[in-house]
Amino acid sequence: MGGLFALELTPPGQALVHPWAAWLARFSTTLITLFDPTVISYGNIIQSQANGFGVVIEAGCNAVEACIVLAAAILAFPSPWRHKILGLVMGMIVVQAFNILRIISLFYLGQWRMDAFEFAHLYLWQGLIMLDVLVVWLIWIRTMPVESTARHGA
Amino acid sequence: MARNPLYIFLLKAAFWLPVCLGLWYWKAEWFNGPAVMVSGWVMQSFFSGWVESWEWSQRILSIATSLKLGMAPGMPEGEYALVLEVNPLTYGFGLPLFIALFLAGNEANRWRKLALGALLLIPFQAWGICFDLLKQAAITAGPVVSEQTGFSPWKIEGIALGYQFGALILPALAPIALWLALNNRFIPMLVLEGALRKP
User: Fold this and answer.
1) Nearest CA in chain B to A121
2) How far apart are the C-alpha atoms of A63 and A57, rounded to whole Å?
3) Strand B81-86 and strand A54-56: pairing?
4) DSSP states of A11-76 as a string?
5) Cα–Cα distance for residue pair B91/B122, rounded to 1 Å
6) Residue B111, CB-side half-sphere exposure with 13 Å CA sphere
7) CB neighbours (10 Å) of residue A32?
8) Model pTM?
9) Model confidence at A154: pLDDT above 70
């Protein structure tokens, strides 16, 4: 995990993280405009044209760290490679989908009440995202192939 | 069809997390006090050359330093010393997450493990607080202040890495890792239960 985290902070890692944040902003905006056409995105910012409120997707908001923790947990746990790869792909999709829900909810929470936004942004969603990582990992463990389970138990 | 114990556990955890977070936020001075005291002591002990005093008030930890700020255009004449401020709660939400996981489970010696886990989480929160303060002094406050701290370039790199790790990874990972460590029967039971359910 330390290696993956250090890699994220290096220039090549950042060259992937920044476009990812911009893609998250674009994708979240695409979903939002299905019911709210006044919302636009530019770079890693999502903004309402109706009231000017915007959110920036920074480090810690892009769920990259949550994916790193999940990847480390899956890679460290003894299981067949096929099951690991399936867990990595499916797990990261689930974590990122949950993170998009977080971004959209925070975008609207901020327009409603800033104190509620602060609480949800700094504390509630941080805990929920890690709970999501734990859920995904536990489900992955539970669905491990039987032969591997026997080896793990031995 | 038998109810899945994993999903029941997760539903309970999802219920307890907002409840515990609300209580923790309401009584933030109590729950974050120990980590703040440890952080204040660490800063005063290890950086006694420039840390003068600390204060915990209004959910903000303030550290008075002897680090002199550079003059900026428009500032009245005089000497200005840097005061570092940090919100310790941003590094402490692991405690309610840890308590929620415990309340969702039904392990033996639950309350003893809960108290032990809460104690063991204090250094992780203190890590985040201390590295946030160090990052402010060594990087955010600018080169004039950074020079006075005496940090070498590689130490500043270390502070940046320690800050990132303490802010992005530790607060959320520590409670889950501790919960798993204190419930070492949970994973083998889950593996076994999953295997028994397979046709």
Assistant:
1) B90
2) 10
3) unpaired
4) HHHHHHHHHHHHHHHHHHHHHHTTT-TTEEEETTEEEETTT--EEE--TTTSSHHHHHHHHHHHHH
5) 10
6) 0
7) 20
8) 0.87
9) no
pLDDT in tens, A15-24: 788 899 999 9
Q: CA of A141 to nearest chain B CA: how many angstroms apart?
A: 6
Contact call for B100 and A150, based on CB within 8 A: no
Instruction: Provide the phi-psi class of B109: left if phi over 0, else alpha when psi is between -120 and 50, else beta.
Output: left
**Polymer length in residues for chain B:** 199
| The two three-digit tokens of residue A134, written as one number | 């734990």
Q: What single DSSP character describes residue B2?
A: P
> How confident is the model over A128-146, as pLDDT tens digits?
999 999 999 999 998 888 7
ipTM of the complex: 0.84
Return the CA Rg of chain A: 18
Q: Residue A45: what are its φ and ψ, rounded to 5°?
A: -110, 140
Tracing tokens 């028994």 back to the chain, one arrives at: B196
Which of A59, A124, A139 lies closest to B168 in CB terms?
Answer: A59
- Chain A residue numbers with beta carbons less than 8 Å from the beta carbon of B6 are 138-139, 142
